Every structure is written in structure tokens, then in C-alpha cells.
Amino acid sequence: MAQSNPASTLANIYRTPELWEKIIFTFICLVIYRVGSHVTAPGVDVVAMMDFFQNQQGGGGLLGLYDLFVGGNLSKATIFALGIMPYISASIFAQIAGAVLPTVEKMQKDEEGRKKITQYTRYATIMLALVQAWGFALFTESVQGAVQSPGFGFKFEMAWILTTGAMFVMWLGEQITERGLGNGASLMIFFSIVERFWPSAVQTFKFIGTGSISVLAVVALVALMVAVVAGVVAITLAARRIAIQIPQRTMARGRMREAARNFIPLRINSSGVMPIVFAQSLIVVPGALAQFSGNERMRDFSDLFAPGTGLYFVLSAALILFFTYFYTSIIFNPVDIAENLKKQGGFIPGIKPGAKTAEYIDEVVSRITLPGAIFLTVIALLPVWIADAMSVPFRFGGTSVLIVVGVALDTIAQMNQHLLLRKYDGFMKKGRVRFRGRQATGGF
């Protein structure tokens, strides 16, 4: 991938007023989000909460995954403890509804219908935030020493504050998407994850100083992280190109001329990080039920699915493979692609337009989804397995790497588009992301 001069690229950004304004606006919104992430909700002992997450959760489980996405706000019980996750959950439900309910699918194809879906998504976000906030208030009371004055008053106050915080974060994310650079929700998760890199690095040096981990183990882990990042970048950009032809009529002499060949890029990992999120959310359900029920038999049963056990790795791999195919089938509709191609008069060489085209695209997607699913499984489980095998006192997950790389590539692609409009060089040659050496427009 050919790179432009970084200094000239930064100068081009400064010389592009609308792009520079978007960057400044996005930066201000993210600063506001991170400032709010250090304001603790009233009546909560932060030290007791953080000790519980460190000792009981160990960074794993559903709460650990949620805490990763909200930048530690959950473990610190801040006013933004729920983060952007209620809005993302509501958006995912809207996507699933569009794939299952014909009425919602029809609304998604209309401008007014999309506005209604957006409004319904906001209402659903409020309901989810209220339920999650009340549940978190109950959970906080169950942590020994975390709440100074438990009772209905505390739960009501906590639910009100966290729901309000979630709504403000949703509004802030929408402002970034509309007036800033990139997708607001994704950028918030991106900076929540990146912010924790430095404390993790400091903690690593402390482990080396105390002898909890050897220098050789750290070097091996760094090499593994580099390999994981390289693999994530390669798979994120990898795509299977399907050549298409769209005839064009030229005005000169009324002749038909074949247009330059185009292609449909089908991404190998079109489902992103969602299969890992779904799988990890489901596999921790037995442990969560056992924890809140207090039943010894349920706790013994949930121990079978504890992170690091053989059953945990097998079940996680099976769930990731399943949800990769499931989520891909939801967000990808070969019938719509075939219909749009037919309306433009285009076709795939050797394939009849219409139903045959849809069948061919669906077959290709099914084939390329398998290596994508295997890749997600390896990325999610290999770092955990190696960390356990080396007895490392901390873990790094491929989930966070997938999110960081995906959001970074998407943001760079949008910056390149703005620079290309001004005929400036972007971060990559000709402002395009290359799929295995072949040009195609990038996306997250």
C-alpha cells in the first residue's frame, strides 16, 4: 500500500477548511465525553466497585466486555456508565427487525421511513437505558461496601442519572456523525478502548518490576499483538471481487458501448466484531444467573463455562462461527443487490440477471464467510489461550483490536474523500483502500 508524505498530508488537512472544522468539532465532542467519564455517580464507592471488577470479573465476562466498550465507566460507576451501548443495541435490534419484518424492511428503503426508524431507535434506546440503569443500580447494591445508603431512593437516583447520561451520549454521537468526522458511536468506543492502552502499558512494567512476568514473555506477547494487528488489517481489507458490466449508450452515432468493467467487493469479514460480542454475551449467561441466584449447584455448573476452561473455548468457537453466518445473513441481502443491478441494466458475465444473480452472490458470500468466521474465532480465542498458557497476569483481546482497526480505517477513508475533493493527496495513494492489491472503496 503506497503511502503519501505524512507532513504534506497533514498540511493538506489544515488547508481544507471543512475537513479541519469537522476534526475540531469531533475532538471537542470526544473531550466532553471523556470528561463526563470521570464524573462518578453520587452515593457510590469507586474503590469498592473497581476492586470487585478486578477480583471477581478479571476483565472477562459480560460486565468486563461492557466495561471495555465504555472505557471503564462501568467499573468506575460514572454518569456515563452505560456509554453508547444502549443506542448500539437498539440499532442492532432495528437491523434485525428489518431482516425479519417486511414492514420495517419497506420503511428502510424510504427516506421518511428511515426517519421514523431513527426516531423509534431513540425511543428504544431510552427504554434499554432505563432497564440497564435499574439493573446496574441493583448490581451496585450487591457489591459489598459500594453503596453508602442503599434503598429505593438510591436506585431511583442512579437509574435517572445513568439514563440521562446515556441519552446525552447518544445525542453526542449523533452530532459527531452529522457534523463531525466518522461514525460517532464507533469513535466513542474507539477512544474508550485506546484510552486504556497507556494504563495497561504502565501495569505491564509494574509486573516486570515485581517479577510477575518475565521480559521474554512480554516480548512474545508484543510480537503476538503485532501479528494480530497485521492479520486484522489484512482481513478487514480483504474482499472477493465480483466483476459486473453495465452497458452505456453513447450519443455519437447512437451506438451502444460497453462501459469500463466495475466490480462488487464482498468483504470476507462483513459482520465485523458483532459475532464475538454476541458469543461472549451468551456464554457468560450461566455465570451471571449463578451469581445473582446464589445457588451452589448453578455456580458449580457455571464454573464449567469459566474463561480458560476447555468447554469455554469449544463453545465460544462454535458460537462465533454460528453468529458470523447469522449476522452476515441479516446485514447482507443478495436479492437487493441483484435487483439494483438489474434496474441499472447491469449483469455478472455468464450469470442471468435476477434470481440467478442473487443465487450466485449468495453462494459466493457463503463460501467467503467461512474463512472470515475462522479468522474471528482465532482472533477472539488465541490471545486468551496464549496468555493462560504463559501464566500472564493480564490479557489482551482481539475484540478491541478489531474495533480499533475497523474504526481507524473507516475514519481515514472519510478523510481521504474530503482531501480528494480538493485534489489533495490523502493518507494512501489516490485516497483508496486496496483489497489484496486491487482498488476498491473502503468502509467499516
Number of H/I helices: 19
The CATH homology group name of the domain at 17-195 = SecY subunit domain
- The total beta strand count reads 6
What is the strand arrangement across the widest sheet?
A: 1-4
User: Given the helix and strand composition, which structural class is it?
Assistant: mainly alpha
Order of helices and strands: HHHHHHHHHHHHEEEEHHHHHHHEE
- Average pLDDT, all residues: 78
Q: Quote the CATH topology of the domain at 17-195.
A: Preprotein translocase SecY subunit
The oligomeric state of the chains shown is: single chain
In one word, what is the shape? Answer: globular
> Helicity level, as a percent range?
55-70%
What does this structure look like?
- This protein is mainly alpha-helical.
- It has a domain at 17-195: Preprotein translocase SecY subunit (Orthogonal Bundle), CATH 1.10.3370.10.
- 68% of the residues lie in helices and 5% in strands.
- The protein contains 19 helices and 6 strands.
- It has helices spanning 6-14, 17-36, 46-57, 61-69, 73-76, 85-100, 102-108, 111-142, 152-179, 184-194, 197-210, 215-237, 274-283, 285-293, 296-303, 310-331, 334-343, 355-389, 398-421, and strands at 239-244, 247-249, 256-258, 262-267, 433-435, 438-440.
- The protein has a two-stranded antiparallel ribbon. A two-stranded antiparallel ribbon has the order 2-3. The chain has a two-stranded antiparallel ribbon with strand order 5-6.
- A hairpin with a 2-residue loop joins β5 (433-435) and β6.
- α8 (111-142) packs antiparallel against α9 and α16 (310-331) runs antiparallel to α18.
- It starts with 5 loop residues before the first helix and ends with a strand.
- 32% of the residues are buried.
